[in-house]
Write a structure and sequence with these properties.
The chain is α+β, with helices and mostly antiparallel strands. The protein has 13 helices and eleven strands. Strands 6, 7, 8, 9 and 10 form a five-stranded antiparallel sheet that branches.
Amino acid sequence: MQVTQTNADGLKHEFKVVIPAGHLEEKVSVRLAEVGRTVRIPGFRPGKVPMGILRKKYGSSVMGEVLESAVNDGTQHALDEHKLRPAVQPKVEITSFTEGSDLEFTIAIETLPEVKISGLGDLVLEKPVAEVSDAEVDEALQNIANRQEKTDVAGESHAAAAGEVVVIDFLGKVDGVAFDGGKAEGYSLKLGSGNFIPGFEDQLIGAKAGDQRVVKVTFPADYGSEALAGKDAEFDVKVNEVRQVVPVAVDDELAKGVGLEGLAELKKAIRDEIERDYANLSRAHLKRRLLDQLAEQYDFVVPESMVDLEFDAIWKQLEKDKSEGRLDEADQGKSDEALKEEYRAIATRRVRLGLVLSEVGRDNNITIVQEDLNRAVMAEARRYPGQEHMVFQYFQKNADALNSLRAPIFEEKVIDFILELAKVTEKVVAIDDLRKDPDDEPEVAAAEDAPKPKKKAAKKKAAADE
């Protein structure tokens, strides 16, 4: 095998590889002999099939195997000899081959850059935190009580008030014609809940049992059904009952109703849950600021092929957002050329940060163990109460799904490692500040392979994940 480097330009390398015909023929003969030991051909015992017959019957497919193996071996030889780490799959092109002649092919490789990590202990970060107030716990308690509330039928002369429930039959029409989904019987509607089209509930305030009303509304311009969006409609409404809300006391009985021993235990459970939520918000902001500093600290050329892949993913999401009318306001009115320039810069930063985090993990032997995967699967299962067993089975039977958890797990472990080294101080902030979307802070790119956050537009999807 003869491997010659023909070009070296930054991260891009090209090689010419020549594999002698004799070497290929030797590999073919060895492989045909292996086939001959097991293949069954009428008239011949296993292992006794003449080479000529084997070559005639299997020569073409065996040559294909040998060529594929030779190309792989040549590519790996070039990588090992020059100590190169490919950024993506090398591009191979066979330039010359006929049976009985040498195999010649070229390899184009874009490599990962050398990233020297230093000064992680010098990073200075401020972590915003918020304290859980008694008022927040009390509000959460009252919300639980409100969800447990019951209603009693009011007298026939009672006029429905905001916050009370009317049990109604209704039929909706546009231009005098009933439309799909506009009819129901015995529907319980809490006035003031905002569950119906704006203006609908207001027109039922003051209604009594037995009343029949015509409710006139206009569907919002952004209503989910294009056939109804922006249209004027009338609803024929019959009020069957008016029900008054019976408040539920915030006491031990309320706690027992949700499976706890008493009010004190319920308050503690609520406080603990709010504290966990605040801790997650704090980490989101802290991670954002860490990535921001890393993006400023490290500036090196990144592989174009990796940027292309990242940009393609971002652009695909942006086009989807555009088609669904969810394009970020800041992007509306911009030309595709301007958007592509902007998002390619974001893709470049994402890739660069991904390489930084990858190198930190590589330098410090950060790995993913089975326990990490088990915790991640448990976390996924908790997102689907009542379906945990199905989630476990899904990951057990789907290796690709399980492997998809590796990248975000690795990133979080690397982030944790860096934060242990960095100088982190806490600053108490108002809860409204903590609840602000970290992606609304000055722009920063997320690490490559970061789990995609659920944002309104592609730019936010390209930013740091919570």
